What does this fold into?
Amino acid sequence: MRSTAAAVLERRMDEVLAAYEAVLHSTDSSLLREEHNTERYLAEARRILAHIISELHRGTYLPHGTDYLGADGALPGGPRAHPVESERAATALFDAVVVVLMDEPEDVRPAGAEAAVLFSLLHRQIVARHTARSVAHIGYLLERIRSAHNDERRRIARELHDEVAGHLGTALNSFELHEIYAQDRPDLARRKLEAARHTVRESLDSLREVMTGLRHRIDTASLHSALTHDLEGLGEHGAEVRVSVTGDESWLPAGAAEELLLIVREAQRNAVRHARAKLITVEVHVAPGEVRAAIEDDGIGFDPVVTAPRGHSGMLSMRERAELLGGSVTVESQPGCGTRILVFVPLKGDTSG
It folds into this structure.
């Protein structure tokens, strides 16, 4: 027996897909910011509808938990996507099908058990792909975190080698020269000993700086203090940097505070090191339900669409840290017109302080 629901979906599939694409565009979904992504998600939606039509025609519905598996037992997730964006796409497709079906005349519209089967198939297909995309995205973020940890270890190793080990090597050489000159040239021996002591003190200072960078400074100081302290450690850079933090920092959960510090710190470091700016402003506002930050400079700027800026890996790290908190990082820049980085982080749960 021919399925009424399948016939309606076949006849009006293009309308469903057009409505689906229109909803995604209306919400400014990041899924459609690149042309090839639009084609991917529309093709995936078409495959979902084709699968449902096939099942409705056959009249043999696979049990829940097996109908969405591929031939190799893998989830057909397509391109990875942030779970929020993926859920938005899933809702858009479901709504598009409902709207088109409800537009059918009552005597043609699927009803009763057939409508229930249709929506059950649609729900299971959409949820399966949403789950697969979300799992792929989480795996990607975990890999980026692992890569960021490796990068941080290499940075620490470089600092220890360049600053601490180098100074200690110089100090050891001075101690050895002190022993050589101790009998015949006592004045020179004393100078070598004093030089060794001075170099050891420099090594200790360098080691303290490295250790300070490893501490969770947000636990012992305000966000403003942590950011200004980081600027002091960057040395002379020729730019005026203005840091402003408003709102009650007690609303920040400890984990979110640390991640926010790392995001904003990376942005201000990139501006100081690469923008060739005269003025850099860092503004952070903490509210009960969200944190917003803006890091702006009047430097050389770049085209974020076609050019990867210097510090590109740091930019990726900033975005991924924000995504892990459910937030976002937006870059606004043009060559010769400076750069503006906007950070948004939602605060979930109890923010009463």
Notes: Confidence is low (pLDDT under 50) at residues 63-77. The beta strands are 240-247, 279-286, 290-297, 328-333, 339-346. The chain is about 60% helix and 10% strand.
